[in-house]
Amino acid sequence: MTTWRYIKNDNVAASAGLAADEVLANCAGADTSQHTLRLYTYQPCALVGRFQSIENELNLSYCANKKIPINRRPTGGGAIIMGEDQLGVALAIPGKADETYAHVRERMAQFSQGIISGLATLGIHVEFRRKNDLEVNGKKIAGLGLHKTDSGGLLFHASLLVDLDVPYMLNVLKTPFEKITDKEISSVSERTTTVCREINTRIKIGEVRKIILNGYRESFQLNIRKGDFTKPELNEIHQLEKDKYMDNDWIFQTTDVPDAMGKVIVKTLGGLLDIRLVLAGKMIKSAYIHGDFFTSEHAIADLEQSLRWHSSNENSVSESLSKVYERWSDDLTNLPMDSLLNAIVVAIQKAERTARKGLADPYGCFVTPGGTHA
Q: Cα–Cα distance between 341 and 266 in angstroms, integer?
């Protein structure tokens, strides 16, 4: 039976924790460290994905006022908050000789089985969906990321929502909302879920950690033994933290593609339809669908999720909407697809005009998106 090392950390600074994960993956790829599973919590912080612009994703003034540290992960994906209520999962193992990002989705599905298996013991049925999400009944409970190091090591990242302060999250992350109201808070709350909400009771992070640890033991049939960083690893971690994760050149990298927001409010046969979306180049980065029509929250969540990191091409959007409408044909009766498609197209056109004028507002996603490297 294969043996992995298990490292437990709590209240870790963002720069130190990110450096630790990268060093572990580097060492695993170079065959100087064993396979390692690290389960940890961060000091409250905000982290963006490898290829995101911090100005697009985070409310920097709020973070500065509240003294919330910000940093950049080596893994792709979207902006997240981390703290005592979010369990970080890092898996550092050697990659295959022919490992490429072409199979990133399959690898993330494989590596997340420990989380899925562990939460199943609490009666929580989790599915790997979209590009890099774990969901419970269509609601996101964890975001995933993957990074291949120069040494050939693989770093799998997951942020599991044990609990979540939604108003706090919406203040930290930039959203398509002019201001955060009870309606917006309620709407986002319906798109995400937590371990505590699913079991309808408060559970300590330590208990969830044990459950996830056992989930990896069972799903991978492993002997996982508790250990710690070696002295050489600690030396590398401290140096990498100083050289990279405390360096503003790494943290504040920018992109030449600004985000632009488009919004439209129209009357339809089913009621008022409010569409707000964020465009990054030719990609729909996130979409928000609201109004006074009657339908299922799960159906709306599915529509929104299907448009994340989606081509803004009208035909492509139409095809994706059709698939969702097939899944939720009864629930979406009061929201005609033609009306929704037309509203989305108008919102896209408005965002494109804004971008051309150089007036793009750098709104980010309020739900973690997938990136070039998921």
A: 12
Q: What is the distance between the alpha carbons of residues 305 and 47, in angstroms, rounded to a whole number?
A: 21
d(CA 368, CA 42) in angstroms, rounded, equals 18
| Nearest in space to 154 (alpha carbons), one of 92, 109, 99, 105 | 92
In this structure, what token pair is assigned to residue 333? 């009766």
Tokens 């009061």, residue?
A: 334
Other residues' Cβ atoms within 10 Å of the Cβ of residue 24: 29
Domain 3-251 has CATH 1.20.1250.20: no
Residues 353-373 as b/e (b if ≥16 CB within 10 A, e otherwise) read ebbeeeebebbbbbbbbbbeb
Fold equal for 3-251 and 259-356: no
pLDDT digits 0-9 by tens, 155-210: 999 999 999 999 999 999 987 666 778 877 887 888 899 999 999 999 999 999 99
Query: Which element (helix H / strand E) includes 162?
Result: none
Supply the pTM of this predicted model: 0.74
* CA–CA dist 16, 310 (Å, integer): 34
Reading the block at residue 341, the tokens are 């498609």
Domain residue ranges in the chain = 3-251, 259-356
* pLDDT tens string 122-132: 999 999 986 78
Q: Which residues pair with 155 in a beta bridge?
A: 92, 147
User: 259-356: CATH homologous superfamily?
Assistant: CO dehydrogenase flavoprotein, C-terminal domain (3.30.390.50)
Query: How far is residue 279's CA from residue 53's CA, in Å, rounded to a whole number?
Result: 14
- Are the beta carbons of 337 and 48 closer than 8 angstroms? no
